[in-house]
Design goal:
The chain is of the alpha/beta class. The protein has 3 domains: 2-89, NAD(P)-binding Rossmann-like Domain (Rossmann fold); 93-301, UDP-N-acetylmuramoyl-L-alanine:D-glutamate ligase, CATH 3.40.1190.10; 310-441, Mur ligase, C-terminal domain (Protein-Tyrosine Phosphatase, Chain A). The protein is built from 17 helices and 20 strands. It catalyses: UDP-N-acetyl-alpha-D-muramoyl-L-alanine + D-glutamate + ATP = UDP-N-acetyl-alpha-D-muramoyl-L-alanyl-D-glutamate + ADP + phosphate + H(+).
Length: 443
């Protein structure tokens, strides 16, 4: 059996190692450059590879192809594979059959990383043998090849879910859905929504789907579609006989005739959106029958996620916050919504078809100055130019932070929450966040 892997990054190399271990004839092809550390791994494992091209005769003879989530279905080589009827799948689809572990899969437009990390934190604190992977950390396939975990908590992007056929998590979470990556879905929101719901398409009556019952797109989907999974909703405004909700500043979770309550003030994560993330993760902990004392302790000591509303430094009584992970408007909405002081907002990058008008009321209420950090800022300037007193364009993170320091006063907040992808000026959102933190430290 010939396994061809498109993309020599973390998921590609992980899949190559698992494929080799399972007896496949493996070939890795990357249209860009493969990082040196990954090349070394491929060489040590005697896996053939190529970079900066796709050689068709070495690819179109595949029995199965694993495509990295970063490669579009519209790329010429993927179209040719599909025309030939060759199966093109994602890493999780390839790796899942090779593990007996229970899988918890988490998707959503925002909050999925925090929910994934918190769920992993809760299960690990309970002493369970649990791995963390998917769209985060070490490749899932690589872990399946090397480790013996009883459980996996996987963060799953819509691109990873596009490439599944039989994959099914025992517990699935959809944190929320808002327009994102529409450039990859023919600019049709319904295509993107359907991609998220692929997480539940193979679930049975034995499985669970935990979801945000306040979310408009999710509720709309349920009007015309069904899933076999048992439904566990969570909400900030409704109450349930089976599900999770907030009432009188208490988080209440009712699952399988059991109840769990905790004062929200003892939960380490702040902000309404994080209450939802906490309800989703705690619902998993309850399904896994983790002790209440362990859940309470874990929720109160969880540190949060780097680059997501991360408090960096306070300088001259101005708080600098790194929210570089906010790569869409909805994520930035959460960030601005949780600001309690006049805000200098650093925004911009590669626009994925954003509608900034959704932020208008929050910008009017909270933002005193906008610093545009992107190659093309026209759209942001057009929307907010008449709303804020100061609108500044910069082309480097150092300049952005220096300007922010200049226009901020005691008691203000400087918030990096770009609402855009980072690829115009940075390698990725982590690089953007790290440059922000470095620039703040250098003030």
């Amino acid at each position: 059996m010939r396994l061809v892997i498109l993309g020599g990054g973390e998921s590609g190399v992980g899949t190559a190692i698992l494929g080799k271990k399972k007896g496949y004839d493996v070939f890795v092809s990357d249209f860009g450059k493969i990082k040196e550390n990954y090349k070394e791994v491929l060489l040590i494992n005697e896996i053939t590879w190529e970079e900066q091209l796709h050689t068709e005769e070495l690819i179109l003879n595949a029995d199965v192809v694993m495509k990295s989530p970063g490669i579009s279905d519209n790329s010429p080589i993927v179209k040719k594979l599909k025309e030939k009827g060759i199966s093109v799948i994602s890493e999780i689809e390839f790796a899942a059959p090779y593990t007996e572990a229970t899988i918890i899969g988490i998707t959503g437009s925002n909050g999925k990383t925090t929910t994934t990390m918190l769920t992993h934190h809760l299960l690990k604190a309970a002493g369970l043998n649990v791995g963390l992977g998917g769209n985060i950390g070490k490749s899932f396939a690589w872990q399946v090849a090397d480790n013996k975990y009883d459980l996996y908590v996987l963060e799953l992007s819509s691109f990873q879910l596009d490439g599944i056929e039989n994959f099914k998590p025992h517990i699935a979470i959809i944190t929320n859905i808002s327009p994102d990556h529409l450039d990859r879905y023919n600019y049709k929101y319904e295509n993107y929504i359907d991609a998220k719901f692929r997480i539940t398409m193979n679930q049975t009556q034995e499985d669970y789907l935990i979801y945000d019952a306040d979310d408009e797109a999710i509720n709309e989907w349920f009007k015309t579609h069904t899933t076999k999974a048992k439904l566990i909703p969570f909400s900030l405004t409704k109450t349930f006989n089976e599900g999770a909700y907030i009432q009188n500043n208490k988080m209440e979770i009712k699952i399988n005739q059991e109840e769990f309550t905790m004062d929200t003030e003892h939960i380490a994560l702040e902000g309404k959106h994080n209450m939802k993330n906490a309800m989703a993760a705690t619902s998993v902990a309850k399904l896994m029958q983790i002790r209440k004392a362990t859940i309470r302790e874990s929720l109160s000591n969880f540190q949060g996620v780097e680059h997501r509303l991360e408090k960096v430094f306070k300088i001259q009584n101005v708080q600098y916050i790194n929210d570089s992970k906010a790569t869409n408007v909805n994520a930035t909405f959460f960030a601005l919504d949780s600001m309690n002081a006049p805000t200098v907002w650093i925004v911009g990058g590669v626009d994925k078809g954003n509608d900034y008008n959704e932020l208008m009321s929050l910008v009017r209420e909270k933002v005193k100055a906008i610093i545009c950090l992107g190659v093309d800022n026209k759209k942001i300037i057009d929307v907010f130019g008449n709303v804020v007193d100061m609108m500044i364009e910069v082309s480097s993170m150092d300049d952005a932070v220096r300007m922010a320091q200049r226009v901020s006063e005691k008691g203000d907040v400087v918030l990096l929450s770009p609402a855009c992808a980072s690829f115009d000026l940075f390698e990725n959102y982590e690089d953007r966040g790290n440059q922000f933190k470095l620039a703040v430290r250098n003030l």
